[in-house]
Amino acid sequence: MASLPPSTPPTTTSVKLSPQPKPKAQDKAPSKAKPATKSTAKAPEPTNTSPPDYWPTVAPVSSRAPSDSLLQPVPLLPVFALVDVNNFYVSCERVFKPSLQNTPMVVLSNNDGCAVARSAEVKALGVKMGQPWFQMQKLAKEHGIVAYSSNYALYGDMSERVVNVLTDYTPDLEVYSIDESFLRIETTMHLWNGATPMGHHVKEQVMRHTGLPVCVGLGHSKTMAKLANHIAKKNPQFNGVCNLAHITQEQRDTWYQSVAVSEVWGVGRQISAQLHDIGIHTVYDLASAPIKKIRSQFGVVLERIVKELQGQSCLALEDLPPTKQQIMSSLSFGRPVTELSELKEAVAWHIHSASAKLRAQGSFAGAIYVFLQTNRYKPNQSQYHPCLATALLEPTQDTLQLTQQAIASLEKIFKPNYCYKKTGIVLLDLQNKAHQQTSFLDDGAAQQQSEKAMVLMDQINQKFGKNTLRSAATGIRPGWKTKSENKSPNYTTSWKELPEVK
Ligand SMILES: [Mg+2]
After folding, report:
1. Residue 72 C-alpha to ligand 1 middle, in angstroms?
2. pLDDT in tens, 314-371
3. d(CA 81, ligand 1 centre) in Å
4. Contact predicate 425/347, CB 8 Å
5. pTM for the complete prediction?
């Protein structure tokens, strides 16, 4: 991957009471003389006389400790960027099928049930997130909506490629979700002549290296960056990059007035309804609400959100995703299942995938929960939704031991003559190795052997595909598997499915 542009910016940390940058209506879009390739990249020289946005935005004098002297470096105000891929799943499909660029399209959930991603054209037709595909049939015929089954192997790999590009811009990065990452950039943004030009550079480089369109939101806090991203998406004049950290207070107020409070990150439907009741309708209303009142009525979480909207960073980047406290795997069947043998195969598949995740985070499971469900949406069929949680004698991360236990639980709860729609498992009571309690009769030899076998299995599956080596209990050709009738090939993760050029 490419390196940073080689320009040497002015030193920013030693400036004490430099004038605040004169805010501009909007940061100037970066000049066309932008680096053509990463290796020859050179940040453009500032051409105007007004201070560029790499000028330090220093903390106000009143907020500094009395011991601060003129010789001490002044802390820079944090600047966060939120990079979010537009219509992620749809965009991934379009990278390999450019002919779909302006075609209305949706990506469907497991079993081809509901829309989990919609292109802009489909959103404009009024299709809602989560709308079932069968309800869209008439609209689909009229407007030629194309539906794809979800292809998570492809999306996961494309997501990794985006993050790879982003690591060129700062070491402080938080992968927030499959299509969103937070970057902290106040110490590196000067290399691109400021936050806004850097945002445009990010946007171009992600497009260049992955073919995916992104929007970049910039602000002094994560909540502000998230809001800026929303504004960038809805207002084409930003050309995909909105910087709320570098505009005047009046301009910020105007933007805040234009966005509904429900769009603020962390403000759910319930809280926004309560806020409406006390006359808070827009982001501006919330950001200028009396902080004490917010705290007493809604608690510290909303108080923090208000501070973040005012430009005070309260939420830090999370470097590592928190260790999961439980790991779940479940899926609906492609057709009703009545046989115990098929249910056993499905449960073994769930253990196979959940236990690989368990080992990846270095945990051991102390208990397993197994459940079965008939179809709740078919009330004329007999209903049965049993579940069973069992504590293990010793915590384990061994696929075979977990499979054995899960199947034993399944046999206990299974009843014949029901049409089952779904089964799943949850690994519970997760603990790391240091806290693992073993039996005092155990000399550890069996566990060592099991660990070796699991390491080998994970290595083989990593190299040749995640289901190459698995327990025989998962079956050979599962007939119960989920429907995905129009799934695109795994273009980027399978040698057999590489895209072909005609
Ligand atoms: Mg997105």
Report:
1. 41
2. 998 885 556 677 898 988 888 889 999 999 999 999 999 999 999 998 899 988 989 9
3. 14
4. yes
5. 0.66
